[in-house]
Structures are given as structure tokens and as C-alpha cells.
């Protein structure tokens, strides 16, 4: 096959066959196609698109380009979860113990990504001693014994996506539905769970800015999953404002513990219960339902809430931390977590209703404070972050503190204050508050 001919074929809007797509993915991964030609191909896809079948073939070729996880040693139906990203997203820390406490195995392999705040791995590593590089045998053994384990990615999952995503990032070809959906789903297919629950976020703190675009992405990803023989549910959730009150690594663990103890912020709890409910449905624990309906989701949410109310999810979190070498005293007494040197108030300069304008600016504040990572290998400060005392729609008086910045120095603290001030406006008009979960797609 000649790559230049395939490139022209796509440029002219024709469909590529499975073999042609497979050739492109494999040859590029092996270094047989130069970046300049692949860039032109990606731009052709960006403008001409790919149909469902092409998108599935692209996803499968990328999923098969490296290792796939072997979860056969784990008993039970394995359900994976993925979020398209957000600010203050600590849902995995809450959902994992809920599911494990119900006997649904949670086998989570996470990458150490770039971003405003750390990923789940970084958040857990803010617990002294917590080991995220446990060997595979211990990972499997922990899941079979206590129902949950989490580790950093040791296997080379979907290397084709890694290489293509890096090229898309610098060639203006990220924002294409087929390319985004296949990129995310290739990693999920390689992770090999029986079912996948996707949290597709929309809004100012998310990758997709509107509900409509998030729904299109959710549909594209559930189509791929179905065509690849997996059960997939996607929830479309609001990320116009950070999720919960805390943004930052150990601050988010502290908030997750609060939720597990039944002291949750309403919207964060609703998103967690909805995702957990959908995962319980996918696991088959609710019964033999063919489709997810509002009623079925409510049943799943009730079951998840029950595990918080009866204390089992909290107990499971302690067990999980202990099994991976973490200091459980920090969980039972979160006051012992390392604290930032400074606690700086963000004060209202006017009176009115707080309105979230740009959630990503709260993430940027945390990045300034040293709680996120700009380059792979950067170290992360576990103790810095933002505490939002109020949320959109709350009334604020002049001089009232509506957020705290936890900083290790004045300069980063001042920058973070400016970011949080810009993230919110104070308006005379009560803002419309969207429901935390907009829809689900199966
Ligand atoms: N996240 C991914 O993993 N891939 C994309 O293309 C976009 C977001």
C-alpha cells in the first residue's frame, strides 16, 4: 500500500477500508510514515471526517497497537470508568469504594496525565505511603481479596494513540469527533473491561463546551463500544463550575472522604451516585435489564447511596488505602494531612449572586500554585489548592470570603487569587443552574 495514495483518497472524501486504516496506524506507530505525511492525513480526516465504520476500525487498530490488559484473573464483571476531564473531579475516589463494597471489582489503571490538577494517581499519592506502582500479582490479588486496586500504567496501552495524539496536539487536528472518540475508546478497549461507563463533561471547565457537542461525542463513543462488542453507557455532566468544594490533590482526597462519610456537596454527590448507578447497572447487579432507563438509574443510585449510608463505602476506602500501604490515620483524621504554608481568602468586592464564568480558571489557579503538571515528570505539590466556600447562585456580601487559596508562597497565592476572581463574577441576577447530569446515552 502507498500511504500517499491513501492520503489523497481521504483528502477527496472517500471511505477507507479496514485494511487501509490498519496499515496507516501500524506503519505510523513503527515510524514508517513521517510526521509530515501523517499530519496531512490527520488534516484530511479533520475536514472530510470518518463514518462510523471507519471510526471503529481506527479505534480497533489503535487499541491493538500495543498491550491489552489481561483481567481474566479477576473474578466478576469488570466495569471501567473514564471521564473526559474536569476541574475538581474526584469521582473515582468515591465511586471505587462504593462499587467494591458491593462486591463489584474495581481494577483501575491510571495514567499520570498533564493537567491543571493531578490525576487520580497523584491525588492518592498525597496519602503518605500510598503505593501506586504495586506489581501486577498484588494488583490482582488485592482486587480478589478486597474488591479494589489502583495502579499507574505499566503496560504499553494503545501506543499508536499516544503518538497520533501528540501529533494532533501540534497540528490543529484535535477537535474532530472521530479522532477524539477513537483516541479515548482505543485506550478503553485496550484496558479490556467487560463494560465501560463514560463521564462526558461539558462546559467552561471541560473539553466539550456545549451539551450538544458532549452528546455527539457520547454517541460516537457508545457506538464504537457497541460495535466493538462492549456494553457502554455515557453520562453527560455539567462542568461549568468545579465539581465539589475542593480543587487540589490532598484537598480532593479530604473531600472524597467527607462524601463517603455522608457529608457531601449536593452536585458532587449526584454525579457520583449517577455514575456509580450506571456502573452497577452495567455490572448486572440490578437485574437483567436490557436498557438503562431513568427508573433503572434511580435504582442504581439508591443502591450506591445505601453503601454510603451504611458506612460500608467509607470502610472500603480505608481498607483500600491500607492494602496499598497508605497511612489510614490520614483518612480517619484528615486534619493530619500536610498543609500549605498560607491560607489566603478570596473576598467579594461587590454584593450579589456568585456566577461561575470560567471553571478552567480555578484549574489554572491550582496549576500556578504547583498542584498540577505542565510537563511529564514535573513534581506536584499535594497540599496546595482552592477551597470554594460558595457555589454559583449563592448570595455574597461585600467583604465576604467566598474561597480560600492554599499556597506555599505569596506570589503563586496572589496569582491564584486573581484566577479565582476572574473565574467568578458577582451579578445582581440569580444565574440559571443546570442540572448536574444532563442526559445519558447507551
Ligand atoms: N482525550 C483523549 O484521550 N484524546 C483526545 O483526542 C481528546 C481527549
Task: Supply the key terms.
3 domains, binds uracil, Pyrimidine Nucleoside Phosphorylase, Chain A, domain 2, 15% strand, alpha/beta, 442 residues, 4-stranded mixed beta sheet, Transferase, Pyrimidine Nucleoside Phosphorylase, Chain A, domain 3, Aldehyde Oxidoreductase, domain 3, 17 helices
Structural class: alpha/beta
Provide the succession of SSEs.
HHHHEHEHHEHHEHEEHHHHHEEHEEEHEE
The low-confidence runs, each spanning 5 or more residues with pLDDT under 50, are none
Side-by-side strand order of the widest sheet: 1-4-5-13
Fraction of helical residues: 40-55%
> Which superfamily, in CATH terms, is the homologous superfamily of the largest domain?
Nucleoside phosphorylase/phosphoribosyltransferase catalytic domain
The distinct bound ligands, ions and cofactors come out as: uracil
Q: Which CATH class of the largest domain applies here?
A: Alpha Beta
Strand-residue proportion? 5-15%
* Rg, Å, rounded: 22 Å
Largest sheet: 4 strands, mixed
Number of domains: 3
The rounded distance between the terminal residues' Cα atoms is: 37 Å
The CATH architecture term of the largest domain is 3-Layer(aba) Sandwich
CATH topology descriptor of the largest domain: Pyrimidine Nucleoside Phosphorylase, Chain A, domain 2
Tell the overall outline.
globular
Amino acid at each position: 500500500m502507498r500511504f500517499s495514495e491513501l492520503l489523497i483518497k481521504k483528502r477527496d472524501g472517500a471511505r477507507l477500508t479496514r485494511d487501509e486504516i490498519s496499515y496507516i496506524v501500524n506503519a505510523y506507530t513503527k515510524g514508517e510514515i513521517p510526521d509530515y505525511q501523517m499530519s496531512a492525513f490527520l488534516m484530511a480526516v479533520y475536514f472530510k471526517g470518518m463514518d462510523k465504520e471507519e471510526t471503529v476500525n481506527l479505534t480497533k487498530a489503535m487499541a491493538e497497537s500495543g498491550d491489552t490488559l489481561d483481567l481474566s484473573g479477576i473474578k466478576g464483571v469488570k466495569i471501567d470508568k473514564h471521564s473526559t476531564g474536569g476541574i475538581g473531579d474526584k469521582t473515582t475516589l468515591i465511586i471505587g469504594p462504593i462499587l467494591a463494597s458491593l462486591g463489584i471489582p474495581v481494577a483501575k489503571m491510571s495514567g499520570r496525565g498533564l493537567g491543571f490538577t493531578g490525576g487520580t494517581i497523584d491525588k492518592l499519592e498525597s496519602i503518605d505511603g500510598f503505593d501506586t506502582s504495586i506489581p501486577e500479582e498484588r494488583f490482582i490479588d488485592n482486587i480478589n481479596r478486597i474488591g479494589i486496586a489502583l495502579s499507574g500504567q505499566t503496560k504499553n496501552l494503545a501506543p499508536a494513540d499516544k503518538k497520533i495524539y501528540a501529533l494532533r496536539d501540534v497540528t490543529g487536528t484535535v477537535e474532530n469527533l472521530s479522532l477524539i472518540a477513537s483516541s479515548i475508546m482505543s485506550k478503553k478497549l485496550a484496558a479490556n473491561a467487560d463494560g465501560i461507563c463514560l463521564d462526558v463533561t461539558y462546559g467552561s471547565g471541560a473539553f466539550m463546551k456545549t451539551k450538544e457537542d458532549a452528546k455527539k461525542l457520547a454517541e460516537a463513543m457508545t457506538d464504537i463500544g457497541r460495535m466493538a462488542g462492549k456494553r457502554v453507557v455515557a453520562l453527560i455532566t455539567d462542568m461549568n463550575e468545579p465539581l465539589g468544594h475542593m480543587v487540589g490533590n490532598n484537598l480532593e482526597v479530604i473531600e472524597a472522604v467527607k462524601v463517603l462519610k455522608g457529608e457531601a456537596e449536593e452536585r458532587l454527590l449526584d454525579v457520583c451516585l449517577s455514575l456509580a448507578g450506571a456502573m452497577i447497572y452495567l455490572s448486572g447487579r440490578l437485574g437483567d435489564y436490557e436498557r438503562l432507563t431513568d427508573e433503572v438509574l434511580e435504582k442504581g443510585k439508591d443502591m450506591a447511596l445505601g453503601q454510603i449510608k451504611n458506612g460500608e463505602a467509607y470502610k472500603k476506602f480505608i481498607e483500600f488505602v491500607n492494602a496499598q500501604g497508605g497511612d489510614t490515620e490520614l483518612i480517619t483524621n484528615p486534619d493530619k494531612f500536610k498543609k500549605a504554608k498560607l491560607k489566603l481568602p478570596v473576598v467579594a468586592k461587590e454584593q450579589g449572586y456568585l456566577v461561575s464564568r470560567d471553571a478552567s480558571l480555578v484549574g489554572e489557579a491550582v496549576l500556578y500554585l504547583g498542584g498540577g503538571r505542565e510537563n511529564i515528570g514535573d513534581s506536584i505539590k499535594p497540599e496546595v489548592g482552592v477551597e470554594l466556600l460558595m457555589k454559583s447562585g449563592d448570595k455574597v456580601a461585600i467583604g465576604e470570603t467566598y474561597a480560600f487559596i492554599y499556597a506555599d508562597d505569596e506570589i503563586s497565592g496572589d496569582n491564584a487569587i486573581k484566577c479565582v476572581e476572574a473565574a467568578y463574577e458577582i451579578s445582581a441576577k440569580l444565574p440559571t443552574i443546570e442540572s448536574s447530569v444532563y442526559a445519558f446515552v447507551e
